[in-house]
Input
Amino acid sequence: MPQQNERKTLLKAQQGELDAVLMYHALADAVKEKKDAETFRRLASEEGRHAAVFKALTGENLKPKKTLATLLPILYKLLGKKRLYPIIAKFEYNAVNTYAPVAANHPEVESVKNDEKRHGDTVLGLL
Output
């Protein structure tokens, strides 16, 4: 992966992880089931650790965007968990594919990539 493309991927990954922290906290506040809320809070914490891994690689201080944190609780109310959770899981699984080429050059990303797969499985496990 060329240097410039890799940097873009790392920055996008860092932003995505930061956004996911807010998103999972917002979902935790919106969901009906206590188990789901606890799971989303744990995922938020893990996404925060992921953001720190990418920050160490980029050296950039990014700010989380509130878009997903605003949108997903609304979608939860409109779609319900049976339709929303598979969409969230798909985002997690997509991150696995995005991070795979980066992990080849940065071994610390390998555990993040593996976590994303587990996150997808975890969210689907709530159904």
In short: DSSP finds five helices and no strands in the chain. The radius of gyration is 14 Å. Residues 80 and 98 are 28 Å apart (CA to CA).
